Amino acid sequence: MVLRQLLRVPALLRAAVRVQLRRNVGLSAVAFNRAKELDPVQKLFLDKIREYNTKSKQAGGPVDVGPEFQKDMNESLARLQRMYGEGDLTKFPEFKFEEPNFEETPK
């Protein structure tokens, strides 16, 4: 009986150590990822996105597009206006909801 209990202690110890190691490795991996610099490819990707964002704001629209893009866009907008009616299709529509009348009407 005592021998069986002594043999169980290492199994319990191994399980406890395994849980602690798993937690520590998980936490250290998160801390390591935050502490290290970005991968060079990730850094290049983010730099290009930021560069495109600034160019897009300066140009007021898509960057490095030719007259063919503008022609295709105008044709698409004209086709959509024919299909769906008038209005500016480059802006998000404005919705106006009226408040319902909850007053009782006389019978």
TrEMBL record:
It comes from the Eukaryota. The keyword Signal does not apply. GO terms for molecular function: proton-transporting ATP synthase activity, rotational mechanism. One of its GO terms (cellular component) is proton-transporting ATP synthase complex. The keyword Oxidoreductase does not apply. One of its GO terms (biological process) is proton motive force-driven mitochondrial ATP synthesis. Pfam families: ATP-synt_F6. Keywords: CF(0), Hydrogen ion transport, Ion transport, Membrane, Mitochondrion, Mitochondrion inner membrane, Transport. InterPro entries: ATP_synth_f6_mt, ATP_synth_f6_sf_mt. It is found in: Mitochondrion; Mitochondrion inner membrane. Component of the ATP synthase complex composed at least of ATP5F1A/subunit alpha, ATP5F1B/subunit beta, ATP5MC1/subunit c (homooctomer), MT-ATP6/subunit a, MT-ATP8/subunit 8, ATP5ME/subunit e, ATP5MF/subunit f, ATP5MG/subunit g, ATP5MK/subunit k, ATP5MJ/subunit j, ATP5F1C/subunit gamma, ATP5F1D/subunit delta, ATP5F1E/subunit epsilon, ATP5PF/subunit F6, ATP5PB/subunit b, ATP5PD/subunit d, ATP5PO/subunit OSCP. Mitochondrial membrane ATP synthase (F(1)F(0) ATP synthase or Complex V) produces ATP from ADP in the presence of a proton gradient across the membrane which is generated by electron transport complexes of the respiratory chain. Subunit F6, of the mitochondrial membrane ATP synthase complex (F(1)F(0) ATP synthase or Complex V) that produces ATP from ADP in the presence of a proton gradient across the membrane which is generated by electron transport complexes of the respiratory chain. ATP synthase complex consist of a soluble F(1) head domain - the catalytic core - and a membrane F(1) domain - the membrane proton channel. These two domains are linked by a central stalk rotating inside the F(1) region and a stationary peripheral stalk. Belongs to the eukaryotic ATPase subunit F6 family. This is ATP synthase-coupling factor 6, mitochondrial. The lineage of its organism: Eukaryota, Metazoa, Chordata, Craniata, Vertebrata. The gene is ATP5PF.
